[in-house]
Amino acid sequence: MSRSALCLLTVVALGLPAATASAQSGSKPTSSGGYVPAAPPLAVGDRATSFNVIDDRGRTGPVTSLAQRGKQTVIVFSRGSFCPYCMAHLTELQAAYDQIKADAELIVVFREESKGTNGIRIARRQTGAAFPIVLDPNGRGSGKRYSVDGYATYVLGTDGVITAILPGEKTNRPAVADILAAIGSDA
Question: Which of 22, 36, 48, 131 has the fewest C-beta atoms lying within 10 Å of its C-beta?
Answer without folding.
Answer: 36
